[in-house]
Hints:
The chain has 127 residues and is an alpha+beta fold.
Amino acid sequence: QGKLLFGVRKNDPGRGMLDLPGGFVDAGESAEEGALREIREELGVEIHEMRYLFSFPNKYPYRGMVYDTLDLIFLVRWDQPPQVRAADDLAAVVWVDRDAVEYDRIAFDSIRQALWRYLNNGSTFSW
């Protein structure tokens, strides 16, 4: 319906800024399993339709160290917007019109790049 779902980060890095729901993959999990688990933990919903889009490298500062990470971006589609709730590492969730994304409010450069690519090449990512 022309909207993107963002989480508002509860913790640093990027406390109070926008991020895509997600997190780190646990040992023994595939990227897809980790994404499904993180969505369940952060939003309280199950995902039934998900596609891998692309990845971007990221720098993630944590407890005085900067880690090189790789952000894997998945596209999730719902027929109707689900009833989501902010949990785990999210302070809130917000739906944003795809034409009203404020890139300077997004916590990580990798996520800004991913959103720019998705929004500017959207026809490439059809179901």
